[in-house]
Design goal:
Keywords: Cytoplasm, Nucleus, Proteasome, Receptor. One of its GO terms (cellular component) is cytoplasm. GO terms for molecular function: endopeptidase activator activity; proteasome binding. Its main location: cytoplasm. The protein is α+β, with helices and mostly antiparallel strands. It has two domains: 119 residues, Proteasomal ubiquitin receptor Rpn13/ADRM1 (PH-domain like), CATH 2.30.29; 37 residues. It is 26% helix and 31% strand. Strands 1, 2, 3, 4, 5, 6, 7, 8 and 9 form a nine-stranded mixed beta sheet that branches. Helix 2 packs antiparallel against helix 3. The longest helix has 18 residues. 20% of the residues are buried.
């Protein structure tokens, strides 16, 4: 990605791997993956899983209607953070495992996904949520502030110190 190319934005996006079923047990697919959701021109909510490597195409590409499914943590899993996309009208279950090292955003991610599933019209008003690129978002915001200050001819040592302090608070 070049410096001026904007990263792809989704309604929600977070790093997660797939789980593979072996009988009654689940084991992790070790590929680095991501789940994201978008809304098409038809206003239908789409749920995707794909590998994080460049130019990969989604392996899971699902249209989810309001109140048709929900994303839930799997408390029975004690060796990792497993989530399930559980359909309410069938026995279909898709299991994933959270790949972000800490669990500080797990509840927010699950809540956001379920909110988008149950109220797709809210996606028009809500801001986009990328749970794993907060560092990149902070950098972009700081760059925009820095460029704005420089463009106004008012970039001083004091402005820079203020930007660095704001960056520390955002992390």
């Amino acid at each position: 990605m070049n410096l001026y190319q904007q990263p792809e934005k989704h309604l929600v996006q977070f790093n997660a791997g797939k789980c593979i079923r072996e009988g009654s047990k689940l084991k992790p697919d070790l590929r680095k993956g991501m789940i994201y959701m978008d809304q098409g021109d038809d206003q239908l909510m789409r749920f995707y899983w794909k590998e994080r490597k460049s130019n990969s195409v989604p392996e899971d590409d699902l249209i989810i209607f309001p109140d048709e499914a929900e994303l839930l943590p799997v408390p029975e899993c004690t060796t990792g953070r497993v989530i399930v996309l559980k359909y309410k009208t069938s026995s279909q279950r898709l299991f994933y495992w959270m790949q972000k090292r800490d669990d500080d955003m797990d509840d927010s991610v699950i809540k956001r996904v379920n909110h988008l599933i149950n109220d797709p019209s809210s996606a028009l008003d809500d801001s986009q949520m990328d749970m794993d690129s907060s560092d990149h978002n902070i950098e972009m915001e700081l760059m925009q502030r820095l460029m704005g200050s420089a463009g106004q001819g008012s970039l001083t040592e004091e402005n820079l110190l203020e930007l660095f302090q704001q960056a520390d608070q955002m992390r």
